[in-house]
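ok trying this again, last paste got cut off
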Amino acid sequence: MDITVRLQNDSVPAQECQPDVIRLHHEQSGKTFSIKITQFDVGRSMECTLQIDNPYVARKHATFIYEENGWYLIDNNSTNGTWINGEKLQGGVRYRLHRNDEIVLANVEKLVFFNSREMEAPQKMADPFVGTVVAGKYRVDQIIGSENNTVSYMVTHERTGRQWVMRTWNKTATGYAPSVRDLIIKETKMIMELRHPMIPMIDDIVENDQYICVIREYIPGDTLGEIVRHYGAQPQLPVMSWAMQICSVLKYLHSQNPPRIYRDMKPGNLVLRPDGSLMLKEFNTMRIYNPAKKGDTYCLGTRGYAAPEQYGGMGQTDARTDIYGLGMTMYHLLTGRDPEVLAEDPKPIRQYEPALSAGLEKIVSKCVEQDPKKRFQNCDALLKALNEELQPKRFRLFGK
């Protein structure tokens, strides 16, 4: 996958820019761009003045604005976030830019801000992997993301030509410990045991004295979180279709012996691929159900999507926990309201979107009951309800 960065309209070559015209140096490509308008967007969309064709960058990721003799940056509530000098921006808030500020989009693309024609573009630092071949078979093409002490790369299998994603952990980094390695290996091997169309394949684990590298399937597409953020509430039929796909993968996980409990279902962890199918990502919260335990060892999950039992004191999490997360995912997709930032308890979905069916409202409300005993008890029951809601309604005639 080639990452392209290009200017659309309203731009000038670097050598022609005026002192107050914004100049941005793109670290990955080594290019410097100059833009002469006072407000523009950066993102993956062709409508953006500065287009960065990277699947991790949102369509309209962020906006640059010139006001009061200075440049400001606004993150447009992007799924994967924006950082200035290592500090994550709050969505929708203006941040004043200063010379040499490092702007990172989605933990992937780095831009350096400066607006003086005398300023030289910063030098690109060498990466230990790009251009090398790992384990004698994976050619490392480029960096596609970084987070905490991990860096992700797009790699190509030398023999088959297939593209994969390689995620690396640096053992010499601050915060790394043998326990971290144990968790990485445990999680990876757990995923390698699973076989389902919605679960990414793991091709290999490569380890040496300095790095651990996990090679996994490349997943093209946008997350449902990004889709609802940019386009708002989604129609009923697509959401029901997505919910049935999610039921399929959760049913598969819960049917393992012992069952696997995902514990972090949300739109941001579901990728909509170009063919319309969904792919699940991020398995670091998944646990193995143990009927002998009274509770989870660690309370993990995302606020708003996490069921009450994930906070402890209500027994261990089980299949009904994932049904709660699926219910909150449907709620977000159908109403456009993110449970993670709601200031009040969620209301029935038709109070926000009256065109939705009463039957679907009952399904979502049952999924998100506080008491696990009042929810659908398994994915089969939820799938049955969704299928029945999709069937044409039959009307009784003449009182019969």
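PB: full thing came through this time. Confidence is low (pLDDT under 50) at residues 10-19, 116-123.
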